[in-house]
Amino acid sequence: MMTPEQLIMTSLALPLLAVGLVFLFGKIPNLRDGCSIVVSVLLFGVTCQLAQLVFNGERPELVIGEMIPGFKIRFLIEPLGMIFALVASGLWILTTIYAIGYMRGHHEKNQTRFFACFAAAIFAALSAAYAANLLTLFVAYEVMTISTYPLVTHNGDEEAKRGGRVYLGILISTSIAFFLFAIVWTGHIAGTLDFVPGGILQQPFAEGKISPAGLAALLALFTFGIGKAALMPFHRWLPAAMVAPTPVSALLHAVAVVKVGVFSILKVVIYVFGIDLIRETNLTGSLSDVGISDWLCYLAAASILLASLVAMTKDNLKARLAYSTISQLAYITLGALLASESSVIGGGMHIVMHAVGKITLFFCAGAIYVGAHKKNISDMRGLGRAMPLTFAAFLVASISIIGLPPGGGSWSKWFLAVGCVESGQAWLMGALMISSLLNIAYLVPIPIRAFMTPKGEEPQKWHEAPMMCVVPLCITAVGSVVLMFFADSIYRVLLQIV
Amino acid sequence: MIEQLIQFLDVVSKSPHLPVLLIAIPLVAAPLLILIGNRKLVQILSLIVAWVVFGISVAMLGRVLATGAFEYQLGGWPSPYGIVYRVDHFNAFVMLFVSALGALVLTYSPPSVAAEIPRSKHYLFYPSYLLCMTGLLGMCVTGDLFNVFVFLEISSLSSYALISLGKTRRAPLASLQYLILGTIGATFFLLGIGLLYQITGTLNMADIAEKLAASDAKRAELVAFAFMTVGLFIKMAVFPLHTWLPNAYTYAPSVVTTFIAATSTKVSVYAFVRMVYTIYTPKFAFETLPLDRAMVVLALIGIFVASIAAIYQTNVKRLLAYSSVAQIGYMLLGIGLATEAGVAAGVVHMFNHAFIKGGLFMVVGCFALRIGSVRLEDWRGAASVMPMTCFAWAVGGLGLIGVPMTAGFVSKWMLLTATMDAGNLTVAMLMLISSLLAVVYVWKVVEAIYFSEPSEKVKAAKEAPLTMLIPTYVVIGATVVFGCWTVYSAEIAQLAAKALLNASGVVQ
Amino acid sequence: MTPETFFGLFNYWIVICLMMTGFYIVISSGNLIKTVIGLNIFQTSVFLLYITMGKLTDPVKRVTAPILEGGHGDSHGDHSAHGEHVAQVSFEEHASEQLHDAVKHAHADLSEAGHGGAEHAHEVAEVLYSNPLPSVLMLTAIVVGIATTALALALIVRIREDYGTIEEDEILELDKELQ
């Protein structure tokens, strides 16, 4: 049995090992891809072991050392991070299998670089999940940006280059101009960058080291600086990143990258500000009757609605899913900013529910592309009969994303709605409801039309994608329903952090 | 045999003569090498000399870390009458990276020199290079102000000569322009030294500092300070006195650009810091004179103007040259804060930037060798034939931007925390925004080499030779190592800053 | 400012005039040779500053270059006295430590004299010495200056070979045409 420290070390080392192995066996595709799968399974095993410890109340810790004098790279796992790590490492296995099927089905170039960068991104996601202070989180955040850039520009054509430019441009500039600034500012005020339950800013605020206006500005810097959360108006990178191959969009731009964003916002709200601090300043209305996070909440709500509306106009399936992601991420951001117990739990839970649901949808988009070479929704009429499994999975995952039972998403949206009421912003619930209706409008017609179009229109060549693609998406679709019944345990785990 | 060697090295490293050997060996070697005149032999011998010098620097830094600052009296004349060489944390640190880059660039140089400099000039190139290095090290090691001027001129004269070796006909002109501005700068510096000597009657830095504190010739002090500052600002290429730099860097041979870009301006920064913190006091410079505000303004304008200029360059050497002008601004920002953290940030950025810029110019040298051009349009698609070289650019570029896990991030972080702790939120914000400009000009090149169709010249090219790639990767690797592990960079810089500020009586 | 102080500082006026003349030539001249000449004048001004600062004048006593006269007197000089160092230090009879001592005083006192002019009392001294150190320093600086000039001229020769002209604007014009 390994000590908790060794477990953390192993779970961080395994993705790096995968990077090494992928490069080493770059010339032998079967061995290379085999290594990826084996390592991802091992990694999931290790994270499960860690999860057992963490969910039982332990807080394993690992100190790597000082990166900059006075500032340590340190990992400490708390339940929220553990859940995120579980999701990322679990879905990595499925995505690897899927990606192998997809990349080979497509005869893509540069597969070695692709799989190596993929593993590097997982490494970054886990580091972010385990981070014990803002510096570590920031380092992981940036490593993730850089390691996913080659994936976005994988195709190497003009469109990919443009997409990559927007991707890198927005993510790097927001993180350097706002996020880094906010971190250093926090360190200056609080004297520490560690994540501490209850927050580190409460004390300095009470001592008057920072005004409510300053606190509001700091929160805004964090919210916008964490560009990966794709809060409008810094959301443009996400649709731009859709030029990447579908497995990338699936794992990274539906799960790892964007979830690092909202996860960071949750962490900042819970462990840097402390939900009490945000709620107090909101209730006392010290900033001329508007709390420090209120206007950000409105922005998040607007982001939810606007992104849903934009999604309706998109005919390209991946673009529609991208805007849907922006909308769903804003739910989590909203949950964090509302800073009530239920809303934070709802946000944390939505990380899981949305991850499983959205990855299914992206898997389906990829499978449709591999099987029928269709990108646009208008071309998918009647496709359901040729690809029944894919579209069935699509329907199931849509239900979860919308928040209808028996999808797992129903629980997280429930908690978010309760959170709105708890923090006295009941009318924001309206935004959630309208958005759910919009979700139905832009997601459900896709499988319906695919199944319910008169016969005789479809050409003969359509068929299901290879098994390597279809099996993972069926598993995640089933997962999004199964999670509905495990919401209780997630709830109990997340209860530990608020 | 090996045992004897170890014993010998042990004795040598304990020798009290290290500071003078550091200067004497390359200084004596240079003319001897010219007398030898054999191209191959000169090359090998100069390489040995450069590495020996590096070894001496390491030994000196080791001694400083173990036992603190020490002095060497030339000819046994005690200070302040004779010339003393004084080694403390600060200059040992600067000498370390100057000699390290000097040796690494020289190791890297042969193929590039063979391609860019006429064969008949090789036996002159290497001695000039050694002399330049001697001058730079001398400026650091000496504790005598006039000696600083002499070494400044040694390094300057040899670098003018080196720059003029460039292939194009623009090189002599660029060199002459640098010579004229450089000489004006050096003469200003000399004038300042003269005035200080008039006030204090001594040339020993520590002695001057002592006597200045007691003197009441305020106006003469001020004039001397002004002349020396302007003189050094020219050599540092502080905006708007930077005009010599882009041409000089662009038209010099790649190896020369690499060495000068990595070391020369930093040593002038060193001299400036010495002047402000050891000879004068920060109180004089920043309270009596508003130099700190002037420096912040100049630095920020310089950073923005030079970075924007860099974005529009199509010649990669010129692009990096403008970036160097911008980076000097960051060092000034840190130094101008006059706090321990600020000076440490400035000093560590000297170190980090030396490696980053050195590494990037080494990459440029590889491209220049294989593609025969430093224009960006000729580099398009180079990643397909020169993957190793291109990857080195990507890593070095990330360092220049200041992405975490690279040395650039360490300096940026330290500078930012220092600025913030000094209560200067606006400057911190502007600094961050300015660093985004680096993303644009670095990524412009990355996109061209990775995501474009190969140009004609690239199609005919092949990967750079290992003799060049290995030193390049050592330098680029150092930027990553010093981005994650700062015991020998940031921590020494902090010790140096602490010693400087304690000596100048600033209470933290 | 009285006329006395004005003329008493005449060496500084000369230095400033030369310096500005040289500087102006460097800035304004398009001809590279003239630029170098301007640079030389500019440097020379600083040489003069140094040399004149070491020179002493005295209305009463003889002031001379620091060369030992006679050389073998037995008066060892009064090191602790204020004012200028006294003549006829017999080097042979001094141990090296004392030598340092002597140099120390010479060094400090002479430069003080150079700065403040000859306002100290000179009861003891018959002969005053100028401070040799600035001249020595300038010897080095002149060598540097010569090296710079030589290098500059060599560069100009190469420029003329390449461009056929030494007028800066014409050279820039030629480069523009090329592009």
What this model shows, in words?
The complex is a heterotrimer of chains A (498), B (508) and C (179). Helix content of chain A is 74%, strand content 3%. With 498 residues, chain A is mostly helical. Chain A has two domains: 1-261, no CATH class; 293-498, no CATH class. In chain A, α5 packs antiparallel against α10 and α6 (158-190) runs antiparallel to α8. Chain B has helices at residues 2-14, 18-36, 39-67, 89-116, 122-141, 145-163, 170-200, 205-214, 218-236, 244-251, 254-279, 282-288, 291-311, 316-336, 340-371, 376-379, 387-401, 407-421, 425-450, 456-459, 466-484, 490-503; strands at residues 70-73, 84-87. Chain C has 179 residues and is mainly α. Chain C has two domains: 1-55 and 131-179, Helix Hairpins (Orthogonal Bundle), CATH 1.10.287; 70-130, no CATH class. Chain C is built from six helices and two strands; from the N terminus they run αααβαβαα. The A-B interface holds A 65-69, 71, 138-139, 142-143, 146, 153, 156, 160-161, 164-165, 168-169, 172-173, 176-177, 180-181, 184-185, 187-188 and B 398, 401-405, 410, 412-414, 416-417, 420-421, 425, 428-429, 432-433, 435-436, 439, 443, 447, 450-451, 483-486, 490-491, 494.
How much of the sequence lies in strands of chain C comes to under 5%
Please name the CATH architecture of the largest domain in chain C. Orthogonal Bundle
Cα distance, first to last residue of chain C? 58 Å
Fraction of residues in β-strands of chain A:
under 5%
**What strand line-up does the widest sheet of chain C have?**
1-2
In a few lines, what is going on in this structure?
With 498 residues, chain A is mostly helical. Chain A has helices spanning 4-24, 29-55, 79-106, 111-130, 134-152, 158-190, 202-206, 212-225, 237-240, 246-273, 275-284, 294-313, 317-338, 341-372, 383-386, 388-402, 409-422, 428-443, 445-451, 467-495; strands at residues 61-68, 71-76. In chain A, strand 1 (61-68) and strand 2 form a beta hairpin.
Question: Which terms summarize this structure?
Answer:
heterotrimer, A: 498 residues, mainly alpha, 2 domains, two-stranded antiparallel sheet, globular, B: 508 residues, 22 helices, 79% helix
Helix and strand layout, with pairings?
The complex is a heterotrimer of chains A (about 500), B (about 500) and C (about 180).
Chain A: H1 4-24, H2 29-55, E1 61-68, E2 71-76, H3 79-106, H4 111-130, H5 134-152, H6 158-190, H7 202-206, H8 212-225, H9 237-240, H10 246-273, H11 275-284, H12 294-313, H13 317-338, H14 341-372, H15 383-386, H16 388-402, H17 409-422, H18 428-443, H19 445-451, H20 467-495
Helix pairs in contact in A: 1-2, 1-4, 2-3, 2-4, 3-4, 3-10, 3-14, 3-20, 4-5, 4-10, 5-6, 5-10, 6-8, 10-11, 10-13, 10-14, 12-13, 12-18, 13-14, 13-17, 13-18, 14-16, 14-17, 14-20, 16-18, 16-19, 16-20
Chain B: H1 2-14, H2 18-36, H3 39-67, E1 70-73, E2 84-87, H4 89-116, H5 122-141, H6 145-163, H7 170-200, H8 205-214, H9 218-236, H10 244-251, H11 254-279, H12 282-288, H13 291-311, H14 316-336, H15 340-371, H16 376-379, H17 387-401, H18 407-421, H19 425-450, H20 456-459, H21 466-484, H22 490-503
Antiparallel strand pairs in B: 1-2
Chain C: H1 3-8, H2 10-28, H3 32-54, E1 62-64, H4 96-116, E2 127-129, H5 132-163, H6 168-178
Parallel strand pairs in C: 1-2
